[in-house]
Amino acid sequence: MKQLILHIVLLGLLLFVVEGLPTPGVAATAPVPRQTVILDGVTLNVSFSFLATHTLHAADPGNSHQVAATFNSKNNESVSILAVPYGASPAGEHLPPAKAGDMANLMGASSHIWTSSGATATPTVPARLFGQDVFGTQYTWPPASTARGPNGVSTVLEWITDAGNRFWIVRAEGNIAAIVAGDVAGLTMASTTLSAPTTLGGGGSTGALHSSVIAGAQDLSVVAWSS
Questions:
Q1: pTM as predicted
Q2: Would you tell me which of 15, 23, 64, 174 could form a disulfide with 77, CB atoms 3.0–4.6 Å apart?
Q3: pLDDT single digits (tens) 75-112
Q4: What number of other Cβ atoms are within 10 A of residue 5's Cβ?
Q5: CA distances (Å), 227 to each of 93, 97, 214, 221, in order?
């Protein structure tokens, strides 16, 4: 009987050790890089793969373009987050003002802008935005088309959600769909300060970016994706 108990104990220890060993041929999953940025008074914890080598920069409070973005001008890639408080329109864009319960209208208007310029719309993977799975849309312009998206790109991924009395528009742009999708792999956005009041008072300004922006960076209030 003692021998049987000993065998059971040894077998349990062996299973414990084996389960703790890494699976052959399977690499450990690297954590998705995360950065924190303050946009329209809301502190955002943002994660996606592009942040491993790039930094998010946000507009100053009160700037009419409440956008945080990171970009790679060499490869024409960018990821942007636009905050649109209720009652405001996305600055520089032909989109309706943000209204509570009216997100479908804004989404439809945004889709119409892309598709009317020749893009094909297809569903894309969901992003985890403020605790909800939000499905996005991929807009692709055919190679032979003379029409292009913002910054002359041929692919735009877009997610739109409603949280904290604001609409949030997240976009990833580039010329190769697979690379653009890879840039935003693991996309999540979370905040514990969504109740913060908007910084847009009298319509905002078109001032410069936050002082943390590196020298020589573009002013995000005038870049092509918001014109």
A1: 0.77
A2: 174
A3: 789 999 999 999 998 888 889 999 999 999 999 999 99
A4: 9
A5: 6, 16, 23, 9
